[in-house]
Amino acid sequence: MASHQATSDLETRESAWSGGGSPFAIGSKKLGMWLFIVSDAITFSALLIAYSFVRVASASWPMPFEWPSILNATIMTVVLLSSSLTMVMGVRAAKLGRSSAVVGWLAATMLGGILFDILHIREWLGLIGEGVRLFKNPWGDPQFGAAFFTLTGLHMTHVTIGVVYLGVIAWGSRRGKYTSEDVEVSGLYWHFVDLVWMFIFPLVYLMSYKMA
Amino acid sequence: MHETTEHVEGTKRTFLFVWGWLLALTGVEVILAYQHLEIKVMLGILMTLSIVKASLIISYFMHLRYERRSLAWTLMPALVFVVGMMFIAFPDSIRLLLMKPH
Asked: What's the rounded Cα separation, in Å, for the pair B37 and A209?
């Protein structure tokens, strides 16, 4: 009896090590994306904290955002949140096997991302037109430009890469090349981009609006 | 089969519900920003709301709530710990502010 139990234990241990299993019961693509998301979250946290550090240490931090800028940023937030909704509907459609619906939902998500980029670039051009440069601005601490443009620029880059990524997935899933798992993994990336904005919006915009 | 459809339908309502809450919390944040609160209080409330919004997105949109618990326990504490460690920098930024030559 004892030896039979010992053999069965050994078999269980060996099978776990002999491969073919899925840690956390998710596929490797999904796990890979989650690990990437955690690392990218740390990168953005470092940038956000660096931004906050420079701001706390500054005696004259510019507070340039009047109501139109805050409204613009709020609209950008709503656009991104809604694009996360369309994304999650797309993943749901993929799991239900409705491939034409998947393309529709992903296209809507991509449009949200593109709209976000357009509104953001419009804002950038406005700030640059008012004289904001990386290490110079007409209002206060010269580090404002570098901090603002680096943080929002990296985020905008992530949004743009996301739009391209979703386009590839939409195109490929239509041809049957990508599975619902691939759609779900692209969704994880998109929600992460939205997540980062949830912190940029209050820290950069709401904390720096021009008090009347 | 029927059970699967029900779960998925219920999930669609859940997504809309979460989205609604995300928009509402955003609205609260914007309104709050225009109230004349002390900076530390403002920052505390805004960050708390942002963490709530982030948790909603991670749990429901990113589906982490429905995954194996071990996945959440592997990812989240590590992230919180690393970000928390970065806060070590802030006393130095306050020092820089207070010790600026006048």
From this structure: 13
